[in-house]
Amino acid sequence: MVISPQFIIGVDLGGTKILTALADMDGRLVAEVKVSTEAREGRQHVLGRITGSVEQVLEKAGVKPEQVQALALGAPGPLDTRQGIIHFAPNLGWHDLPVKQVLEQRLAIPVLLDNDANLAALGEHRYGAGRNEDNMVYITVSTGIGGGLILGGRLYHGSADVAGEIGHMTVCPDGPLCSCGNRGCLEALASGTAIAREARELAACGRGAGILAESGGDPAGITAVTVAAAAAAGDAGAKSIIARAARYLGIGIANIINILNPSLVVLGGGVMDMGELIWQNLRPEVQARTLEAAGKSARLAPAELGSRAGVMGAVALALQAGGVKN
Amino acid sequence: MVISPQFIIGVDLGGTKILTALADMDGRLVAEVKVSTEAREGRQHVLGRITGSVEQVLEKAGVKPEQVQALALGAPGPLDTRQGIIHFAPNLGWHDLPVKQVLEQRLAIPVLLDNDANLAALGEHRYGAGRNEDNMVYITVSTGIGGGLILGGRLYHGSADVAGEIGHMTVCPDGPLCSCGNRGCLEALASGTAIAREARELAACGRGAGILAESGGDPAGITAVTVAAAAAAGDAGAKSIIARAARYLGIGIANIINILNPSLVVLGGGVMDMGELIWQNLRPEVQARTLEAAGKSARLAPAELGSRAGVMGAVALALQAGGVKN
């Protein structure tokens, strides 16, 4: 008896957790599993966590592997979507891992690979804030700043699968050092990491009492979350740090709008959860720095799928793959 | 007797000149005509200059209007490619001109309209430095800085036909005022206009003797061309101004490479004619500020078609239109 494939699987591989979703051929979720990545246990262990979570999600739904048409994996780092190789994933400690080949051997399901930010963009485009938009830019503002581009209705990868590195746009040539080695990247000025760094510098100058109070009294305990808490409690220093980050974010978004003339920019990631303090400083900067026609045609919107954008994008990619069979 | 169309026409409408080319269906040039725009005589006059140049080029080649399949016009400003309306062309003094309709009525040839920088990009992609590149960014550095994007092998227009405004990317948030009203745009830091402004400021401080010597002794006579001449004659101030502009250009190019991951960036326009003084300052900045994978996959190359990029792009567009007939 031949069982025709009726399901697809999406996996979002992050530095701390792995989200796995089973969906039917209309993209409706059937079951979900979330496990910790346990990256420090090494690559074999993490690969085992992925295959284990796939087995779990199948078992949960009572679905057989033969009924799964394709699995799409979203992973960090520069990677090769065609060959299915992760070139470099610093937070996993991986170099040149042929993850497609490994998972196909272990699971006997065709595997597709794409960048996590790209898949989050695809998720928001298909199921979230960007439905039916032809040209949409997705930006995630979190520990770092990443992005994905939907151009002409399709995910745009660039020539070496590394398009969308919005966080490494220079917006202040002599600005603070970025993790990439460059100075004045958007990520070094507007990410959660940048917000925490600014707050620690403030505390080091003997100021920032409100931030320290939210951070257990220890400058080392300062994070973007504690800065946000201090701002919410009315601390002027914290508010000013977040406002400045938001203005830089506005500059980066305006640049993207002038270059790509999208109809929509979707903003997600933990820093955006700070809400109005970000938006009220970001919007005027975007408006001031966009050319009239491009500015008028670009809407800004918060992401709708939260931490599930990536796995929903993986579902969308696996569905797109359509007839893919080994 | 039915005469089947065997030719197409490309027109590049600039603020000072109109270039018109007749080509066969393989894109081979048959005849060319160049006339001055005479923009100050008003829009009816300029429209007459366009139709006159079309008649001239046809006469020159002994071709009848019925033998022309399509005419593509490259024009400045925000415009609507589908409706064929030029929304705003400051250097022609035009507002909301339905140029497609007007020219089709007068010439009885189907007319296509696109942005001049887009068509220069298309020209370089089809006939110049960017042949066979899937993802190519064209940047023209002249009085202003403009650009055109070839993504996935096709001209990318964005959602309101205004994509590619690379010159209005902010690269220095509190930098000099730009003609667009914003501060620190790439155009305000690296265009020919910016180079001349910096040199005039130097002269106003009583320095820049070498630049003044090349400019007839009058600060008002300083242009990017006289600054380039002073630099070529060894003037340190002139060299430093051009080097600084080139470094900002490198920052803008690095941003584009990180965002779009093109395989090629083509640089044209009068400022690029300054040659090695630009390139030697631009290259290290691009290298320092691009992420490894994106930087490695992006070649930089000078434009090949010079002032004929736009008209060749118009030829390419008219040929693409293929079966377009009224």
Q: What would your notes on this structure say?
A:
The structure is a homodimer of 326-residue chains. Chain A is an alpha/beta fold and 326 residues long. Chain A folds into two domains: 7-122 and 308-320, ATPase, nucleotide binding domain (Nucleotidyltransferase, domain 5); 132-303, ATPase, nucleotide binding domain (Nucleotidyltransferase, domain 5). Chain A has eleven helices and 13 strands. Chain A has helices spanning 43-61, 99-107, 116-127, 186-190, 192-204, 209-214, 224-232, 236-260, 276-289, 292-297, 309-320; strands spanning 7-13, 17-24, 29-36, 68-75, 79-80, 85-89, 94-97, 111-115, 136-141, 145-151, 154-156, 264-268, 299-302. In chain A, the strands form three sheets. Chain A has a five-stranded mixed beta sheet with strand order 3-2-1-4-8, sandwiched between helices. Chain A has a five-stranded mixed beta sheet with strand order 11-10-9-12-13, sandwiched between helices. Chain A has a three-stranded antiparallel beta sheet with strand order 5-6-7, with helices on one face. In chain A, a hairpin with a 4-residue loop joins strand 5 (79-80) and strand 6. The first copy, chain A, is globular, with a radius of gyration of 21 Å. The two termini of chain A are 19 Å apart. The mean pLDDT of chain A is 95.
SSE layout:
Two copies of one chain form a homodimer.
Chain A: E1 7-13, E2 17-24, E3 29-36, H1 43-61, E4 68-75, E5 79-80, E6 85-89, E7 94-97, H2 99-107, E8 111-115, H3 116-127, E9 136-141, E10 145-151, E11 154-156, H4 186-190, H5 192-204, H6 209-214, H7 224-232, H8 236-260, E12 264-268, H9 276-289, H10 292-297, E13 299-302, H11 309-320
Parallel strand pairs in A: 1-4, 4-8, 9-12, 12-13
Antiparallel strand pairs in A: 1-2, 2-3, 5-6, 6-7, 9-10, 10-11
Helix pairs in contact in A: 3-11, 5-7, 5-8, 7-8, 8-9
